[in-house]
Amino acid sequence: MKLYTYFRSSAAFRVRIALNLKGLAYEPAFVHLAKGEHRASAYSAVNPQALLPTLEDGVRRLTQSLAILEYLEETHPAPSLLPKDPLERARVRSLAMLVACEIHPVNNLRVLQHLKRALGQSEEQVNAWYRHWIGDGLAKLEADLARPGTGIYCHENLPTIADCCLVPQVFNAQRYQCDTSPYPTVMRVFAACMKLDAFDLAQPVKQSDAE
């Protein structure tokens, strides 16, 4: 497998975690988001969405991190990153989507650049935007994790795709110096995940393209 990735890409981070959890070897191909390499014709030939990550598995190319996580689960089912019970699977997917579809899209690089370059927002205003939506999203995640079903990890006592999404989002919050003290359950789950090599080795600073 080949994973097109960038050390600070939250979406690629999710996939790196899942690959590690499943013990799947992959070759990283680095695409520098801050330099705009994802918009170059060479990469758009790989991924017409011009987004990260892209996973190559043989002749197949897959895009969008949640779709890739589901593909890995279906093609390499052990260890499983989804519970067996349909209702429990739905809850795990809901937690993953809360991060990937509600929190992350309004805070990703292209949104922040648009706020600054096209709308003339200052660095302070952009950071305030970021912290507002992080706080809004993590509060919702904290409330959901307070429901029955949460254990050591987002769902009971084995990591799932929900944890693959939670951890990169907490890294983003810490990078922007967001106050995470109002979210003790989120942070407890985060700390438990980071004790596992699969999460630790996937973190941005440990990638070969880290700056």
What does this structure look like?
Helix 1 packs parallel to helix 3, helix 1 crosses helix 7 and helix 4 packs antiparallel against helix 6. Strand 1, helix 1 and strand 2 form a beta-alpha-beta unit. Helices cover 50% and strands 8% of the residues. With 211 residues, the protein is an alpha+beta fold. It contains 9 helices and 4 strands, in the order E-H-E-H-E-E-H-H-H-H-H-H-H.
Query: What is Rg?
Result: 17 Å
How are helices and strands ordered from N to C?
A: EHEHEEHHHHHHH
How many strands, which pairing sense, and closed or not: the largest β-sheet? Answer: 4 strands, mixed
Total individual domains: 2
CATH topology of the largest domain: Glutathione S-transferase Yfyf (Class Pi), Chain A, domain 2
Strand arrangement in the largest pleated sheet:
2-1-3-4
Structural class: alpha+beta
Uncertain segments are none
Q: Kindly estimate the percentage of residues that lie in beta strands according to DSSP.
A: 5-15%
Name of the top-level CATH class of the largest domain: Mainly Alpha
The number of distinct helices, counting runs of at least 4 residues, comes to: 9
Helix content: 40-55%
Q: How many E-type strands?
A: 4
- Based on the coordinates given, report the CATH architecture of the largest domain: Up-down Bundle
- Tell me the span between the first and last alpha carbons: 24 Å
Summed over residues and divided by their number, the pLDDT gives a mean of 95
Instruction: Name the shape in a single word.
Output: globular
